[in-house]
């Protein structure tokens, strides 16, 4: 549903119904005979309406005051005065013709006719046409209608006459003319009722009176019967407005005092916010420096962690190498020990050889003695025995030499075994020291890791503190700016309240001009 469809009609707003309009016409003395008379004058109205409308427009636009108003209206709307005058005259002519058409049809001058006139009245009210110029046209309208009837007698007023020896001519029934003029005057009064009511009710509406809340007038009645209610409502509204102006004045005074105190408090708040902003900025700088120091310490701790891990790796490698060396030394000690045992075995063999050589020498000596005893026959055997003796001596000598060498080897081997055992012992001690160093470095690495973790937490904490300090500084600056804006707004409100107070005083002076007792 559109806005136009939702908007109540003028007839419903003013509670106009057929029964109420019939009562109006009856009260004015409008009869069926008069309506029949006007209905029979339609042809005459068609012939004369345009001329009457043009003359009425000429009179209205030619008047000094009314004409000036319409000229100003034309200028404001960008319309030529001549065009407005011609259109206005045509509208009057059209309405004049409609009067005779309404009189001719059953149920004429009903709600639709009256509502169209309400619209005309509202339109002229909205363009601020003074009511006197509108209502003042009706007497001129009546005079123009009278002149037109005399110049062009309406058919119902014509009377045929026959003169002696002359052609028959039409006469004038002045009683019919008078009845017609009286009937038209009643219609003009009926029209003016709609115009006047529309004028002042539109004025009430423009002043804020809601005619829909005035209640129901009842059958045969309309909003004019509730005029006392409308007037009283308007009076109560104005009186309430008058009383409110004094309340507003008191409120403005209180607001002025409160806003002055608020302005002072806001100024103090702005100064405090500025100090907070400066302190927060300094705190942000300190936090930033702390974050930088923690970052440097964290970097140093990271470097120490790297070094400790490298030391652990080196200790592990040293331990591994020492373990390998100890193993090899132990293997060498085992081999040397085995060599010493073999040397002892060789020594035993040498001793056995020496003993065999001694026995062989003894046997060779015995063989030589036996060969000497044998004489010539034993010479060959003596030679062999001598060779065996010499070989035995050489073998004994070699065995003795070998025994000396083996004894030296055994002594050196024993020394080497002691040295190897000492080296193995020292290597084992070095391995244990390397393990302890590795364990210590691992503990250092764990401690440095924990320190790094703590420093990381401190770095994050100092970062958070710095960010929070920066945000606090920014918030404090915003708060300072906001309080300054609030202060400015407060001053504007104070100014506005002062203006409102001045306006309320002016309204109070205006309402004093109204008699609202």
TrEMBL record:
Cross-referenced CDD domains: globin_sensor
Species of provenance: Solirubrobacter pauli
Signal sequence segment: none
GO CC terms, sorted: membrane
InterPro entries linked to this entry: Globin-like_sf, Globin-sensor_dom, Globin/Proto, MCPsignal_dom, Protoglobin_sensor_dom
Record-given protein name: Methyl-accepting chemotaxis protein
Domain Methyl-accepting transducer, first and last residues per copy: 258-480
SMART domains per the UniProt record, alphabetical: MA
Keywords: Transducer
Stretches that traverse the bilayer: none
PANTHER family recorded: LYSOZYME-LIKE PROTEIN-RELATED, METHYL-ACCEPTING CHEMOTAXIS PROTEIN MCPB
Pfam families listed in its UniProt record: MCPsignal, Protoglobin
Alphabetized GO MF terms: heme binding; oxygen binding
Protein's GO biological process: signal transduction
Gene3D superfamilies: Globins, Methyl-accepting chemotaxis protein
């Amino acid at each position: 549903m559109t806005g136009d469809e939702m908007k109540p009609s003028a007839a419903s707003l003013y509670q106009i119904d057929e029964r109420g309009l019939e009562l109006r016409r009856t009260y004015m003395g409008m009869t069926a005979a008069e309506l029949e008379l006007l209905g029979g004058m339609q042809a005459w109205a068609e012939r004369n309406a345009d001329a009457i409308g043009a003359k009425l427009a000429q009179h209205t636009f030619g008047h000094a005051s009314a004409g000036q108003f319409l000229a100003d209206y034309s200028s404001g709307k960008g319309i030529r005065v001549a065009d407005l005058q011609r259109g206005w005259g045509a509208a009057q002519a059209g309405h004049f013709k409609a009067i005779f058409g309404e009189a001719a049809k059953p149920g004429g001058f009903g709600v639709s006719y009256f509502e169209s006139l309400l619209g005309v009245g509202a339109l002229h009210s909205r363009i601020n046409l003074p009511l006197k110029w509108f209502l003042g046209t009706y007497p001129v309208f009546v005079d123009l209608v009278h002149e037109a009837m005399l110049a062009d007698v309406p058919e119902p007023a014509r009377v045929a006459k026959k003169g002696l020896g002359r052609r028959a001519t039409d006469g004038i029934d002045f009683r019919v003319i008078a009845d017609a003029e009286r009937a038209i005057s009643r219609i003009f009064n009926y029209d003016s009722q709609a115009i006047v009511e529309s004028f002042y009710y539109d004025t009430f509406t423009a002043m804020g009176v809601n005619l829909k809340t005035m209640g129901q007038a009842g059958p045969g009645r309309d909003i004019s019967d509730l005029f006392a209610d409308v007037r009283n409502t308007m009076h109560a509204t104005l009186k309430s407005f008058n009383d409110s102006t004094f309340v507003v004045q008191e409120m403005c005074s209180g607001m002025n005092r409160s806003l002055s105190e608020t302005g002072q408090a806001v100024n103090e708040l702005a100064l405090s916010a500025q100090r907070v902003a400066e302190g927060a900025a300094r705190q942000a700088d300190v936090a930033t420096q702390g974050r930088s120091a923690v970052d440097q310490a964290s970097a140093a701790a990271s470097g120490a962690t790297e070094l400790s891990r490298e030391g652990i790796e080196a200790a592990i490698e040293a331990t591994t190498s020492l373990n390998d060396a100890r193993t090899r030394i132990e293997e060498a000690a085992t081999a040397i020990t085995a060599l010493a045992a073999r040397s002892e075995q060789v020594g035993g063999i040498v001793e056995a050889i020496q003993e065999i050589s001694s026995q062989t020498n003894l046997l060779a000596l015995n063989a030589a003695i036996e060969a000497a005893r044998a004489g010539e026959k034993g010479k060959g055997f003596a030679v062999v025995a001598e060779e065996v003796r010499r070989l035995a001596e050489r073998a004994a000598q070699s065995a003795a030499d070998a025994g000396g060498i083996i004894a030296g080897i055994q002594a050196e081997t024993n020394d080497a075994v002691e040295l190897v055992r000492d080296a193995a012992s020292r290597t084992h001690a070095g391995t244990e020291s390397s393990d302890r160093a590795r364990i210590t470095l691992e503990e250092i690495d764990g401690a440095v890791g924990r320190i790094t973790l703590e420093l990381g937490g401190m770095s994050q904490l100092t970062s958070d503190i710095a960010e929070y300090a920066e945000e606090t500084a920014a918030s404090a600056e915003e708060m300072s700016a906001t309080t300054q804006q609030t202060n400015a707004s407060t001053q504007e409100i104070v100014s506005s309240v002062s203006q409102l107070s001045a306006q309320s005083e002016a309204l109070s002076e205006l309402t004093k001009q109204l008699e609202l007792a």
